Amino acid sequence: MTILYKADPERGLIWQAIFAEHAPDLPFLIWPDIGDATAVRYLVAWQPPDNFLELLPNLQVVFSVGAGVDQFDLRLLPSHIPLVRMIEPSLAEGIVEYVVLSILATHRNLINYIGDQRRKQWKSIRLVPASRRRIGVMGLGVLGRSALDRLKTFGFPLMGWSRSQQVIEGVVCFSGSEQFRDFLSACDILVCLLPLTSETRGILNRHTFGAMPRGAALINVGRGAHLVESDLLDALECGQISSAILDVLSTEPLPENHAFWEHPGILITPHIAGMTQPETAAHVLLDNIRCYQTGEPIEGMVDANQGY
Ligand code: NDP
Ligand code: OXD
């Protein structure tokens, strides 16, 4: 009964030490050391190995090291092998910090002030009270809800959008494609925290931007492929969108000659908003493996039909 881990090897050593201490019955191997491939029951991966189903013939469960599972081809996973995404408190805390940071930076015009400093310009922009800056979060899952919960302390009017109707105290919730435009028209700052699925790919496009108030801002923390990059450049050019903070890009790392690097209205970070922390995540993984072994429900089970 072996666990095979394939993600950041440095953090892998911490996972390995925690398993050695708390679950000595579950040898924890770090890719490319797969030991006896027939003994591997659990794969814990960011990017799975090629042909892992053939490579690991007795695999029972696939765990994503991250919250997202778009790196797995769900069509290839047989139905008897569950795919489980990561739900762990440190990852959520990182996302909360990043979303709060980005919203406050946008709300207080930090991108403009960074540009002004470079140009040695001393120019104030009139302050808009938080009570008049409407924030909309796309995706009301574990991460979207955590971010909204923390945002409540600032006094922004809060909106949320999801596939099914949700009820969150202090948040006006919209759902489905029928309510998408109403949601967008109420967002001065839009945060994307959706999973990447066939339905959400390219959702941050010219139609979406056009339905938002003129001069609205974008923060993308979901996946790069949510965004149609040329549509964002057009929307920034004509002033429909005033600024964008992007933690995720369609090609990572962002290519050297990409227009986003130098764009005065865009702030980029290298996919660091949330990071799974082995100190907390290893215990979540162990609990889930124990649940699987005893037939209890696993937390974070992915619905292959929905894609998240
Ligand atoms: P969850 O599965 O908990 O939540 C997903 C949310 O998105 C749900 O509210 C769901 O609706 C909604 N949703 C899914 N499809 C649609 C759709 N077609 N239309 C409208 N709403 C939809 O995911 P998490 O909150 O854990 O994570 C969200 C994503 O954040 C990850 O998939 C990943 O891409 C990204 N992420 C980015 C990180 C970074 O560092 N930048 C770090 C971690 C995650 P419903 O409630 O109806 O099911
Ligand atoms: C994740 C990520 O999905 O870090 O966890 O992007």
From TrEMBL:
Q: Which UniProt key words apply to this protein?
A: NAD, Oxidoreductase
Task: Output the CDD domains linked to this UniProt entry.
Answer: GDH_like_2
Tell me one Pfam family matched here.
2-Hacid_dh_C
**Occurrences of domain D-isomer specific 2-hydroxyacid dehydrogenase NAD-binding (ranges):** 102-273
Keyword tRNA-binding annotated: no
Q: Which domain of life is it from?
A: Bacteria
> A single Gene Ontology molecular function, please?
oxidoreductase activity
State the name under which the record lists this protein. 2-hydroxyacid dehydrogenase
What high-level taxonomic lineage is stated for the organism?
Answer: Bacteria, Pseudomonadati, Pseudomonadota, Betaproteobacteria, Burkholderiales
